[in-house]
């Protein structure tokens, strides 16, 4: 999905094609596990992919496929050029970590999008607000959702200026009929 140059100021419905992503997949995590995972992946993934000739085509992201009290299943990585998918035909060892990098895809499905501006500690509230707006529009969300971290945070930066685009796959098409979700 091409990154929007401007923030999504209201809930926007899009219909992207499936998009290849190079990710580290983890299952059964807790919210407390996520910062360490993201720090390790985002620190080491770009050089690992560059060494394999993989072309990145967007900002870092986290793609969630399960969020339940029993655990979180997440894929953390970057969108990549279709031409780079062959470089990930076999999983790669992520340099200086115990993680492996593999090919995955963001789903081909109608999605709702919205932008959150602020520190990462406000993402929970941003998701609650976004999902409320999605429901008000009569859209039916699935359990597949992702965050794109458009702004790279810096130690001396203002967290209020961080831009995170929120996306959730929808389970109904324009006529209210269920979609087939490709994950």
Automatic annotation (TrEMBL):
Q: What is this protein called?
A: Effector-binding domain-containing protein
Superkingdom, natural source: Bacteria
List each copy of the AraC effector-binding domain by range: 9-171
Q: Which SMART domains match?
A: AraC_E_bind
Recorded hits in Gene3D superfamilies, A to Z, give: Regulatory factor, effector binding domain
> Known InterPro entries for this protein?
AraC_E-bd, Reg_factor_effector_dom_sf
What species does this protein belong to?
Helcobacillus massiliensis
